[in-house]
Amino acid sequence: MAKTEKKLIANNKKAYHDFFLEERYEAGIELHGTEVKSMRMGKCSIKEAFIRIENGEVIIYGMHVSPYEKGNIFNRDPLRPKKLLMHKSEIRKLIGKIAEKGYTLVPVEVYFKGSLVKVDIALAKGKKQYDKRQDIAKKDMRREAERDFKVKNLY
C-alpha cells in the first residue's frame, strides 16, 4: 500500500506552549459546501480552537474556516462548530481519559491526508501559568547581589 502524504494546512503553536501533549489522535472533519475549497486554499486557523465531547460526538469550536471568495449563498459561518469523525471506541476512551483530573482535548494541526481533511488532536494536561513578576524580582535581586560582590572583590 502506498504512503499517503500529509499536506499541512494549519498548525497550533499555542497548544505546544500552553499544554503538555500526551496522546495524539487523528480525526476527520465534517465540512459543508465551500468550506472544502477554502481548506484547499489553506484558509484555516485553529489558534483559538477547543474540542468538547457532547452526546457521544466530538465537536470542535473556534476553528475559523474563511469563507470562499467566489462562493455566494453557499458559504457557511466561518466559526460554526464542526463535528469530528472518530470511532465510538476512540470516543469512549477519550471520555474516560478526560474524566481524569486536568486532561483536555486540544487541536494540534489540520492537514490533508490524500483527499481528506484530518485534524490531529491531543490529550493534553495544562501547564502551570503563573505570574512571573516574582521570579523577575528575585532574578534582579540576585543579579544586584552578584554585582556588589564582584565590585567588593576587585578592591
Automatic annotation (TrEMBL):
One of its GO terms (cellular component) is cytosol. GO terms for molecular function: RNA binding. It is found in: Cytoplasm. The keyword Signal does not apply. It holds the Pfam family SmpB. InterPro entries: SmpB, SsrA-bd_prot, SsrA-bd_prot_CS. Keywords: Cytoplasm, RNA-binding. Required for rescue of stalled ribosomes mediated by trans-translation. Binds to transfer-messenger RNA (tmRNA), required for stable association of tmRNA with ribosomes. tmRNA and SmpB together mimic tRNA shape, replacing the anticodon stem-loop with SmpB. tmRNA is encoded by the ssrA gene; the 2 termini fold to resemble tRNA(Ala) and it encodes a 'tag peptide', a short internal open reading frame. During trans-translation Ala-aminoacylated tmRNA acts like a tRNA, entering the A-site of stalled ribosomes, displacing the stalled mRNA. This is SsrA-binding protein. It comes from Roseburia intestinalis. The lineage of its organism: Bacteria, Bacillati, Bacillota, Clostridia, Lachnospirales.
